[in-house]
Structure formats: structure tokens, C-alpha cells
Amino acid sequence: MIREALLSELPAILELWLESTSWGHPFIETSYWRDCIPLVRDAYLANAQNWVWEDNGEFLGFVSIMEGRFLAAMFVAPKAIRRGIGKALMQHVQQRHPHLLLEVYQKNQPAIDFYHAQGFHIVDCAWQEETQLPTWIMDWQADQTP
Length: 146
Fold this sequence. Notes:
Domain N-acetyltransferase: 1-143
Order of helices and strands: EHHHEEEHEHEE
Strand order of the largest sheet: 1-2-3-4
EC number: 2.3.1.-
GO molecular function: acyltransferase activity
CATH topology: Aminopeptidase
Mean pLDDT: 96
InterPro entries: Acyl_CoA_acyltransferase, GNAT_dom
Pfam families: Acetyltransf_1
Distance between the termini: 26 Å
């Protein structure tokens, strides 16, 4: 079910990203996310360690780690939410990386709740110039998880 993604699969992962990020961030115009496709494809996905959750040849979720500890992306297809895919992907990367950081929009309470449930803590706040929205910086360390 979880496996490392192949470079040739990045277009399919990008499609999943666009669908999931548009659905998960209703407070941001979908046109903004479409404009971000080249950046996400070329700067993030192409330079990250990516794992996918695949079910019968269909990608239902993915997670991307950059620079060994930055959780750059974690998305589950809207139709697959609450099936344990996000938790399984998170556990997969937590087993491989003893320290993770991420940035999440403060308006994205479902994601914040999910990250808290996975042992992340808010450590700072930031501001996204492009969207003009505040974010939380969240941290997880293996030795601090009960």
C-alpha cells in the first residue's frame, strides 16, 4: 500500500495534490493552487522523498519529505479521508525521520487537529505573503512522543 514514488509518477501525484489541496483549503481560491503547479512540481515534488498510498493502481494519498525533516506535503484524496491513510503515511515517515517540521495554515483546523493527534506541537507562527494568511510551524520529535 505505501511505497516510494517513482519520478515517472509525479504527474499523477501532482493531480492528487491539486484535488486535495483545493478541497482542504476552501479559504484559498483554486486558481492560486493552479498557479502553484510549476513550483510544486519543480521545487517540491522533484526534490523531495515521496511516498504514495496506492490502492488497486490508484493513488489515494502521498507524503513528501524535504531536507530530511521538512514535511513539505501530506495529502489524502477527499474520497479517502478518514480511512487511516493519513495516519499510516505519517507513521511511515515518523519511523524514518526522528525529527519533523511542517507549516500549516491556521485556518486549516482539521489538519492542525490531525497533526496534534500524531504528536506534533505548535512551536512558532509565520505569515504566507502569497496568500496573506497566517500559518503555524509545528514540530515532532521521536523522543518526545508518548
